[in-house]
């Protein structure tokens, strides 16, 4: 397979049906690793995601002095005294570039951060500025972007900080996750347009509370974390529901039936909204002990959806909308311009290159279904662009996906799983 040709996206020959088991959640895995690293004793984690983003998080924590046993999905994390000098490769992982600096601030010594070329485009200024307000010395050459160094003294004062987290919920989560270990805890106020990705904020708060940390989030746009220990906790990570999205989408657009095993009855993952979202498109969703089953009807309705809470699902949802019987509007997702690539521009460009009619709105996308033709779909090193392309490829002849390997960011098994479902 040459890079020029890309990966031939499997074409569905009929209704796609099957059962899929997806590995651990990226967002829960990387939070569990951070919280175990800051805890008061060793924690055993099972169901951990083994993918590029979690490998980068593991390396980052180990380089700061944390012990992590060998093992891909089952590890023991043993906190150690955090020390520099260290170098952290963030790759393109938002959870590494945003969540690790507040941890590095607790280390004694200098910690240098860098990442992929495009990682230097992802906004960092808000979290670096907030850390400075909390007493941390940071050098980013005045850019508000990568590369930067965090020079820790072994402790952080903490206290009050106001920031604008409308660009990414990760700015708030980053401070929440480390804040209990700061001398004064942390009292975060958001001032700006709404913070996206509420489920991810609930995930941070929920996981802290499970570990005995006091978090007060009763007032809108304010989070107060009391100083104190983070209790060690042995925990099993939920499957990654966002990575389940393309598989379920296959059922929706082909009139098939796909079951994802191990679907939690309660979750803070944004993918918890997928049953509702696919129902809006006209499919049905049933949760049983066997998992979540989504059944397509062969007909896909256009939708008007506010995806501000679940932005990371947007590329796959856009692909489903491309086969609807009327236009769709995906709103509340201006912050997708700060993701692995500018996802609004990338979706518009790539869908339209296949003959589609997609238009960027100020805060989202308008998708008017049109007959699509094959071609090379560029992924911009974005795993979810690759997922969207795979969904389109089910119903479009001759679609090739450039750099399918980019799915290794959160699901290295994607090409095999996808071929398996569609063969
Ligand atoms: O905290 C997290 O684990 C995440 C938060 C969200 O970021 P944004 O709020 O920047 O969209 C989400 O899109 C990302 O995939 C993971
Ligand atoms: C936005 C995403 O990732 P990151 O954690 O790198 O921000 C994503 O996975 O869709």
UniProtKB/TrEMBL annotation:
3-phosphoshikimate binds at residues 26-27, 31, 168-170, 197, 312, 339. It catalyses: 3-phosphoshikimate + phosphoenolpyruvate = 5-O-(1-carboxyvinyl)-3-phosphoshikimate + phosphate. The active site is at residue 312. Keywords: Amino-acid biosynthesis, Aromatic amino acid biosynthesis, Cytoplasm, Transferase. It is found in: Cytoplasm. InterPro entries: Enolpyruvate_Tfrase_dom (IPR001986), Enolpyruvate_Tfrase_sf (IPR036968), EPSP_synthase (IPR006264), EPSP_synthase_CS (IPR023193), RNA3'P_cycl/enolpyr_Trfase_a/b (IPR013792). Its EC number is 2.5.1.19. It comes from the Bacteria. GO terms for biological process: amino acid biosynthetic process; aromatic amino acid family biosynthetic process; chorismate biosynthetic process. Pathway: Metabolic intermediate biosynthesis; chorismate biosynthesis; chorismate from D-erythrose 4-phosphate and phosphoenolpyruvate: step 6/7. GO terms for molecular function: 3-phosphoshikimate 1-carboxyvinyltransferase activity. Its main location: cytoplasm. Residues 12-417 form the Enolpyruvate transferase domain. It is an enzyme of class 2 (transferase). Belongs to the EPSP synthase family. Monomer. NCBIfam families: aroA. This is 3-phosphoshikimate 1-carboxyvinyltransferase. It comes from Kribbella jiaozuonensis.
């Amino acid at each position: 397979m040459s890079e020029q040709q890309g990966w031939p996206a499997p074409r569905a020959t009929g209704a796609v049906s099957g059962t899929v088991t997806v590995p651990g959640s990226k967002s829960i895995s990387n939070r569990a690793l951070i919280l175990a690293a800051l805890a008061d004793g060793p924690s055993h984690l099972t169901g951990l995601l083994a993918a590029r983003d979690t490998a980068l998080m593991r390396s980052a924590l180990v380089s700061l002095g944390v012990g992590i046993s060998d093992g891909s999905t089952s590890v023991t994390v043993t906190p150690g005294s955090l020390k520099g000098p260290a170098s952290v490769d963030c790759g393109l992982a938002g959870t590494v570039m945003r969540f690790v600096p507040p941890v590095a601030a607790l280390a004694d010594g200098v910690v240098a951060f860098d990442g992929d070329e495009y990682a230097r485009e992802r906004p960092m200024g808000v979290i670096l500025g907030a850390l400075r307000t909390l007493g941390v010395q940071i050098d980013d050459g005045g850019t508000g972007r990568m590369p930067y160094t965090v020079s820790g003294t072994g402790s952080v004062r903490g206290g009050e900080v106001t920031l604008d987290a409308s660009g990414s919920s990760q700015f708030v989560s980053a401070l929440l996750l480390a804040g209990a270990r700061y001398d004064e805890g942390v009292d975060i106020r958001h001032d700006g347009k709404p913070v996206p990705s509420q489920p991810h904020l609930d995930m941070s708060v929920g996981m802290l509370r499970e570990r005995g940390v006091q978090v007060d989030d009763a007032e809108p746009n304010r989070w107060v974390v009391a100083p104190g220990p983070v209790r060690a906790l042995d925990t099993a990570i939920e499957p990654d529901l966002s990575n389940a999205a393309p598989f379920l989408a296959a059922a929706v657009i082909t009139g098939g039936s796909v079951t994802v095993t191990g679907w939690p009855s309660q979750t803070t993952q944004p993918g918890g909204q997928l049953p509702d979202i696919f129902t809006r498109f006209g499919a049905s969703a049933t949760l049983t002990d066997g998992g979540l089953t989504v059944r397509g009807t062969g007909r896909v309705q256009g939708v008007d959806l506010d995806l501000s809470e679940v932005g990371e699902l947007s590329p796959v949802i856009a692909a489903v909308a491309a086969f609807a019987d009327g236009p769709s509007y995906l709103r509340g997702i201006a912050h997708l311009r700060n993701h692995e690539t500018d996802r609004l521009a990338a979706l518009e460009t790539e869908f339209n290159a296949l003959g589609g009619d997609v238009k960027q709105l100020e805060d989202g996308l308008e998708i008017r279904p049109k007959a699509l033709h094959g071609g090379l779909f560029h992924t911009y090193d974005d795993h979810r662009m690759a997922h969207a392309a795979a969904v389109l490829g089910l119903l479009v002849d001759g679609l090739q996906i450039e750099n399918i390997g980019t799915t290794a960011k959160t699901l290295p098994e994607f090409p095999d799983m996808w071929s398996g479902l569609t063969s």
